[in-house]
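Teaching note: in complex prediction, the entire set of molecules is handled at once rather than each chain in isolation. The prompt given to students was simply: 'Predict the structure of this complex.' The entities are:
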Amino acid sequence: MIWFQLQSLMGSYPLALRGLGMTIALSGISLVLGTILGFALGVLRTSGSRWLDSAIGLWVDLIRGTPFLVQIFLIFFILPELGIELDAFTAGIIALTNLAACFICEIVAAGIRSVPTGQVEAALASGLSQWQRMRQVVLPQAMRVSLPPLVGQYVLLIKDSSVVSAIGLTDLTRVGWLVVQRVPNGLLVFAIVGIGYFVVCYPLILLARRLERRMSAAHGEVQL
Amino acid sequence: MIEFRGVNKWFGALHVLKDITLSVEPREVVVVCGPSGSGKSTLIRCINGLETIKDGDLVVDGQRLGDRATNMTELRTEIGFVFQAFNLYPHKTALENVTLAPIHVRKIARAEAEASGREMLAKVGLGDKFNAYPSELSGGQQQRVAIARCLCMRPKIMLFDEPTSALDPEMISEVLDVMVGVAEEGMTMMVVTHEMGFARKVAQRVVFMDAGAVVETGTPEEFFSDPKTDRSRAFLSKILRH
Amino acid sequence: MLENFSFRTIVEYLPLFGQGFAATLWLSIVSFAGALAVGIILCAMNLQRSRLLQLPAKIYIDAIRATPLLAQLYFLYFGLPRLGVVLPELFVGILALALNSGAYIAEIIRAGILSISRGQVEAGIASGMTYAQRMRLVILPQAIRVTIPPLLGQAIVLVKDSALLSLISVAELTRAGQLLASDRFMPAEGFLTTAACYLVLYYGLKSLAVFSARWLGVRPIGSRT
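The expected output is the structure of the full assembly:
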């Protein structure tokens, strides 16, 4: 029985590979775009303009306050009504990029706020321009604080990409859903799907942990 | 009361205690001093088992540490320990801090524990701070609560690990005064400190440590007026220069 | 364009959204209670010296954190019948949410316990307390305060995650939106209303988190130095 199912699963091998490819492409592209956008938003949020800060803050709240599934549905079903035709892949990229940008914006903003004002004052005193202060003094220090949660956020992003299967994109989770219709062994099929995600996510989790440990060691925090 | 015989300890490859032989008699007050990293904190942390020793014998109150027959938890109730960073429980008031162990470890009735807690807090000059939380107290007051917390357990020995080095200068004397009081009541004390005034006033002996070894011991008079080794002379010239 | 946006249809469907809102609320509460239980057990196992207890907890936590909730949900939904366990979709959903959030809660509690400084532990040891006494009297009372705000954060995540239950046709908030979208071909009305309902829950929990952090911060944790 199991042997037969395994054989049948072997037949789905190309499909599974395509699904994994789709998951990696989706999360890879939106990860890069989301990071760029998120950094820009994070810097803008701390630029001193109250108006910008609260506008971005409101958007971040709206995105953080609603399920990603609902956001995907909104983008996929409503943008066409506004005259913007888009396929499921583009809709998925837009939704994931937006989600990533919002979370990364908060991480970057928190990192920037964690840099002591004395640092900015020292940079001011030595005559650096605003851009130079950001680039040479603030961001390098903010990055040290932001890096561990940033990597953690990437893991969440890859996992969230599975939700895009709901609008029919054939990613890893959707492949599992398709295969389980033919091979009625949900434990086996979704264990394999899980392994697919694990292989991608776990190294990142380990990396995030290592960065975190290095940082808390640098700050001399005491452990139990 | 406390006896080190050929005690050695390593942190990894670092030899932090080198062949320590030293004994403290009942009612004796011993001050331990030396440059930072000399192993003096490690030395007194071994006495109540916050650190374990690698070889040699350490006998405290007649019990050999590391023996199966020695119940560390019980032995610790006889040893008060005052930390550099106070380590008061931030979620408990001053009175709750001093009564926690008597009630739960010594199993003394709450009313009785609170009565003696009030008495001890009053004795260290904090009769008006029973219900204050540590965050509402100054460093000097917190350290005095920490001393009262130990006294409430009616210990046979009190250990002090640099009790004044986290304090602002104006608070040091209020803590030292309390310690002098405790010493004058005949407590067996081992104190890691650089407060030489305290050493002169109450210590019977000063132990000078460097690089994990006891380099010199003597009465405060001998040690301060006539240090015998180059290392102790160098150390004294540094701390007494100002 | 959205010029035919129909508020009237939304009003017509309000009872459905009301039911969905209530369902999301109570299934989240039940799942969160389950997740707390799972989290406490996992954390207790993880803090033991015995590797026999520690290792299964660590593996479980890592496996949950490295895989998406949707895959876990399908694993149970398609897998449980295979083991002869046939549960209503709602129970499968609650189980998946509790098992998933439990892993994150275990880490939150652990971080709370580890945030208590070494000095606190040593003060307990020095006054002759046993491990159990130190935990009960010194560490946990302080750790619980630290963990309440992040636990509320996890509750927010759980409420949002519960939207995935609509994909195994549990009748909750997102499902209500889907019904309006497919019955009347009004996705904008359906999903914007759904989003608005989630925002009510989000802002409620968020202000609770902010309030609790401020309230717990009245007596700052940690003495000087």
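Point out the following to students. The domain at 2-88+156-240 of chain B is CATH 3.40.50.300 (Rossmann fold). Chain B has a mean pLDDT of 92.
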